[in-house]
Design a protein that fits this description.
Chains A, B: InterPro entries: ArsR-like_HTH, HTH_ArsR_DNA-bd_dom, HTH_MetalResp_TranReg, WH-like_DNA-bd_sf, WH_DNA-bd_sf. 2 copies of one chain form a homodimer. With about 90 residues, chain A is of the alpha+beta class. The first copy, chain A, has one domain: Winged helix-like DNA-binding domain superfamily/Winged helix DNA-binding domain (Arc Repressor Mutant, subunit A, Orthogonal Bundle). Chain A is built from 5 helices and 2 strands; from the N terminus they run ααααββα. Chain A has a two-stranded antiparallel sheet. In chain A, helix 1 packs antiparallel against helix 4. The model of chain A has no long low-confidence stretch (mean pLDDT about 95). Chain A binds a DNA duplex (30 and 30 nucleotides) through helix 4.
Chain lengths: ~90, ~90
DNA sequence: ATCAAACATTTAAAAGTTTGAATGTTTTTG
DNA sequence: CAAAAACATTCAAACTTTTAAATGTTTGAT
């Protein structure tokens, strides 16, 4: 089943920095790693780590554009997760 | 905002045992800690710990009935979480 | 070609989580 | 009341996650 996805996706959300990244992606549409560094005050390697967790979970899409990493929400997977939780009720 | 709830709830879900407890609660309607022990093979203290995380998160209701702990899903909070995630998209 | 900017990787320390053994509490049963 | 059943708590070991310093890679500007 999709339980591995649910586990990885909820784990990706379950952190204050990563949750704030998701919310900011939702508000702004897209962000770069540098944007996230400025927004969180975290070190660059730490941001890189959090971004990797988010992209590995499938909740965030990453696309290299020149030397920038262009991050966007993966709406389909967020909706899939939302639907899974709703189906439990 | 509700971000602390989202953090705690997703954290509660983000574990294979706790996710399976939620899914079994969804299927069966209710469980006791002993049911969960049998179902997971985990030790009693470990089950107690996972149950506490689930109830502290607000996703699961616990009610003492004699010496048993009667666990049920908190559907409202699951729907709240589902709605939050859906609103990000 | 040089330099700088953006991001990734490696590594190690600090902090947090998971697990079960031992023990404690409460409730039911004989 | 004694014993057992169900759950909670304390504790310590094993494991995982988070963080940043150091370093590496790639891309763009001069």
């Amino acid at each position: 089943m999709e339980t591995r996805f649910v586990e990885k996706a909820t784990n990706a959300i379950a952190d204050k920095y990563r949750l704030s990244i998701l919310m900011e992606l939702s508000r702004k549409g897209s962000l770069t790693s540098t944007d996230i560094q400025e927004m969180t005050g975290l070190s660059q390697p730490c941001v890189s780590h959090h971004v990797k967790l988010l992209t590995d979970s499938g909740l965030v899409n990453a696309q290299k554009e020149g030397r920038n990493l262009h991050l966007t929400l993966n709406k389909e997977s967020l909706q899939q997760l939302s639907g899974f939780l709703n189906n439990l009720t």
